[in-house]
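Q: Got a minute? One more chain.
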Amino acid sequence: MLEALLRRENTVVAGALLVLILLAWAALLAGAGTGMSVIAMSGWWLPMTLPAGESWPWIPYYWTIAFVMWAVMMVAMMLPSAAPTALLYAKVVQRADAKADTKEAPLCIIAFAGGYLTLWILFSVLAVVIQFALERAGLMTMMMNSRSAVLSGALLIAAGIYQLTPLKTACLKHCRGPAAYLAQHWRPGPAGAWRMGLGHGAFCVGCCAVLMLLLFVGGVMNLVWIAALSVFVAIEKLAPFGEGLAKAAAVVLIAAGAALIIAASQMITA
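A: Always. Here it is, folded:
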């Protein structure tokens, strides 16, 4: 009976995560509060640029909308690959709850997920600041992607190099083996769950934050680019060949970035 109850409760957790993911993607498709169609903005073939030296008016409302856009996008992109860890935590905390005859499991699960998402929301703040700086420098198009081949190439090369660093390897190893993290950093109660969620989120940000900056290359609201990065992150974390894929992607990213910069330099000299 206990096993059946735990399975049923885990189904509820999985359903809640799925609903949250679907809501985030629905909000993203609706423009995430920007008032613009994400499908229309996926047309990277439309080279619409802001006049040199000009940017969108960054009034408080625009800052808020940009933050909401990034936060919704991070939930939509990162929660699917984090769902297995959340489900594993839910199963463990439900068992502990049943043994201790307490009722803290639901609150602990919410706290764990909240701690994880908090780190990506904080990253969203950083992403908005970077977007502001790029627009002020006249380096963003109206489709919210880089208008500079050199900048795009540099971001691709930086992402490729980071894929090969020890920090990336360590963070990816954690994301691929959450059971070890839960065993080593287990803390009881909702406050402990929150701290565990924050810790897991920190590893996840360390693993994927540089990849998320590639949104400035393909388009912050480019649906194809968003979906491609989401799938890559999920495969990298969950597939048996994920670590090898991370190294292979490094070569592709560095080569693509170098090709962009070389092509841009040739056009300038021509």
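A: The two ends are 75 Å apart (CA to CA).
Q: Perfect, thanks.
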